[in-house]
# Entry
Amino acid sequence: MSVSVFNPRINDVANMTPAVNALVEPNLAPAATATKKVFITTQGCQMNVYDSDKMLDVLGDSHGMVVTHDIDEADVLLMNTCSIREKAQEKVFSELGRWRKLKEKRPDLVIGVGGCVASQEGDNIQKRAPYVDMVFGPQTLHRLPELYDKSSEQKEIAHKNRIGTIDISFPSIEKFDFLPEPKVEGYKAFVSIMEGCSKYCSFCVVPYTRGEELSRPLDDVLAEIDSLAEQGVREINLLGQNVNGYRGTKDDGSICRFAELLHYVSHVDGVERIRYTTSHPLEFTDDIIDAYAQLPELVSHLHLPVQSGSNIILAAMKRNHTIDVYINQINKLKAIRPDIHLSSDFIIGFPGESEQDFQDTLNLAKELNFDHSYSFIYSKRPGTPAAELADDVSFTTKKARFAEFQQVIIDSTLAKSHEMVGTTTRVLVEQVANRHPDCLICTADNTRTVMFPYDVEKMDELLGKIVSVRVTDFVSPHMVKGELVEVLA
Ligand code: SAH
Ligand code: F3S
# Structure
């Protein structure tokens, strides 16, 4: 979902739920004076992209703020941070250094830091960067309007004496109750179905920065999807760190598991495609695999992170499954959906990774022939169990392995795109291509961008539709070109 401008509904409290009313009513005065502009940067995962949209939504609804892409005209600067790897975390303070210079010139600028680095560092952020006005975590972004007002009131006070400008708590699933109605542009939207992660993989900070797994109630998730579908959304991407661990409460108090949720979502009028990000092999159960037989709305693409092809490393990572389990799941799925496209995440250079462990990972990637994958050099994260593990592999070796692994991934991505030529593929038509206005831009099941020429007079009959396209040309590793065959839905 990309929300580029949000409704400047200044004083339009009648449109909000009573809970939101209570939160923002006393704070409406600043909005009445002038329309403030927010500039936001987002690091990291799709959860953060979703959260950034929500930050803009809450400030839009409560204070009538609008988004700007020009940092020089912004009144509020927000940084939604990621701490999954050290590099991402380092970026926060270097970027903040640049923002400090802006604030020296414009002391009225309000600077907020949210996301996982905020959650992990808390008070340290304002100690290292006292010019930061607000610090909030992924679970408290709905309190941004309050934080904004408190920070404005206390601007002149030294940071250590400010009250209530830091909020990095984990107030259960409260955040979602305070978010305004989703507003969308385009035909695709993310819907967060759960927060946090309880898997505690030994290398990962997420359980510490986002808290334990907490699922949103079924009705809330479906209400959000209904509202998106009414606004024209055709593709829903269900978001969570481990969506297949979803356990949402139903109206009658019983628990809805992920496979059942997929069935409910497929019944929402207007929803033609369903994706989800991310799932974990541990709870990738048969009922989810069966859903691929029953629900044509589920795209033929699965992103299932495996991290390593070595059972020894998987155990050290505390992934709690073996390679055989993973391969079995993929084979079962392929039996149901022979055209399934696969992608994965890999960590190269985990502590103690032997040459054999690395070869096992390389072989798994070659065997499964992924459509694309994400690979990362292991990054030691303070506070995680893996940070305590002995590591006798030099960084030079890790980098060489990483380069070799990347090449395998690049080769299979390229090969998969070439293989598409001559086939017919289902795509969602999204928009006119910026650089080729004679073509429409679409996304295929396997996330490749597909372009095809169209008749301008028929544009409205095509935008937002699921169509089939015969692929005629390879354009780049992630893009192909083709011609329209027929409109499907
Ligand atoms: N929920 C997902 C992972 C979310 S984090 C899962 O089921 O695995 C996204 C990816 O970042 C992970 O899959 C992993 O490949 C990578 N990652 C996480 N922590 C890392 C670390 N300390 N070093 C390098 N890569 C890491
Ligand atoms: Fe991280 Fe493992 Fe959860 S990679 S997000 S702890 S599944």
Observations:
- The radius of gyration is 23 Å.
- DSSP finds 16 helices and 21 strands in the chain.
- Residues 197, 199-201, 204, 206-207, 241-242, 280 surround FE3-S4 cluster (ligand 2) (CB under 6 Å).
- The longest helix spans residues 395-420.
